[in-house]
Amino acid sequence: MKGLPPETDFIVIGAGVAGLRAAIELAAAGRVLVLEKERREALNSSPQSRQGVVATALSDEDEVLLHQQDTLLAGDGLCRLEAVKTLVEEGPERIEEAIAWGTQLDRNRTSLVFETEASYRGSRILHARSDSTGGEILRALHAKVQTSKNISVLEIEFSTGLLTEDRRVTGVSLISEKGLPEEVAGSAVLLATGGMGQLYRNTTNPEAATGDGVAMAFRAGAEVSDMEFIQFHPTALYLKKAPRFLLSEALRTEGAYLRNIEMDRFMAKYHPLAEQAPGDVVARAIMHEMEVSRAKDPFVYLDLTRLNAAKVQKRFPRIYATCMKHNIDITEDVIPVVPAAHFAMGGVHTDLQGKTSLAGLYAAGEAAATGVHGANRLASNSLLEGLVYGARAGKAMREELKSAGKPAIGQKKAASQNGPVDAGIEEFIGLMQDIMWKDAGIVRTRTGMQEAIKEMEGLSPRVAHPRTRRAYEAANLHLAGLLVARSALAREESRGAHYRTDYPGHDDKKFLRHSVIKDESLRFV
Q: 520: helix, coil or strand?
């Protein structure tokens, strides 16, 4: 496609697993426009976007019920049972479908290879090239999309807001690669924009993860839910001038040790399972070790040196290659690591079909809050969620064309007069990241979160009138940060990924419920 059309039947914002799977579902019903703010080549070159594994109950020795139970256990009481049942019951069909479309998963001759992972009972973890599953599923989905004449993927189109009329979403406003504000109309819009990890100084997320979908939906009047639950991965590669690269929890499952700056193992002090403890426990333990070290550049070490070198290279080829680019041989050297923001359990509140509280607006994948993850996501469920709920949202959106009718024609607008970059914007984003990391991160307190909210509100004038792409991203991060901090302050307990030192225990009587924010109102339902 050479340019943005004035109208289309369906608009999908985001070209990840959830967005592409939805687009494939929609193609039989009408024209589908997929908007991606980055080039595919840039996304593919990011190691963060290509990692991961996927879990589903396909193996003979496993059962769907075990997958359901493991997911509920990880969610710490807040999973929505019907959402989890949908995930685990429809998951096998979606994986078989992805395989039929060309996804090449690891096999032992003709049989798929299933492995175990921490927090799982039974063997239901599938890999592609050992640790490149996300990239392989995306490759197959892109190939499938390219076979459809009804699907157009337009890159470097940054969505700035949702067009609404009578509380119905009717299209999207954008800024093109050249800085031209435009609009496109559609009968239904899907937000599949991914996460918001760039809220924090340390994150495994790519640069594009700026909470755009949540911010756009909230500004349009949609409900957002469970924003306090941010999963922090305990081990990300720490190098001063490099992005935080995720070092899989499977490394610890294989037998890797964690050592502090004095090279002492420390996890046994925090949990009887030591390095095999739940990820949130490990992340908090590492934070404490870094604090007491008083080092100028705090980190701890991940140590694989006692493991078989050949096995490590074969099992984790992408991790091995990425670390080697930084002159770290993980079979011989200890690896400097820090915890990092990894996954948002909360997002735009939806039902099981991806419908939000606004007519014509849907959400799927990490941008959505279906309740499937509860207070903490079970490892390896996110790719499956994208496939299952992307397909469901696509199916539901097809009905919108019948009820909403043909969309009105969008209007092209005059070119922006702003320069390509706002002065000081990167420093401003860095300031917000530091505020969130310090006071609304892995360990939280009332006074810390009150201070975070006060500081973020004080920054509001800086994001009042964004005009460039990066300024909109800053505004989206600012809003998402406030939503996270407000939700976390209101939940006066610790549960899942949300940990408060002033309320270290569960309070099921008050908080075995989901936080929901709309406009200025926050409630628990």
A: coil
The answer to whether the beta carbons of residues 413 and 180 sit under 8 Å apart is yes
DSSP string computed for 81-116: HHHHHHHHHHHHHHHHHHHHTT----EETTEEP-B-
CA 225 to chain centre: 15
Distances, alpha carbon 355 to alpha carbons 79, 84, 525, in Å: 18, 17, 18
To the nearest 10 degrees (0 to 180), the angle between helices 133-145 and 382-404 is 30
The Cα 438–Cα 444 span in angstroms is 9
Helix, strand, or coil (residue 381):
coil
Selection from 155, 470, 441 nearest residue 280 by Cα: 441
> What pTM does this model have?
0.92
Longest CA span, the chain = 66
29-43 pLDDT, tens digit each: 999 999 999 887 655
Give the residue, 121 or 495, on which the prediction is more confident.
495
The answer to whether the beta carbons of residues 12 and 19 sit under 8 Å apart is yes
pLDDT of 143 strictly over 60: yes
Q: Which of these, 44, 357, 398, 119, lies nearest to 368 by C-alpha position?
A: 357
Q: At what angle do helices 469-490 and 446-458 cross, to 10 degrees?
A: 150
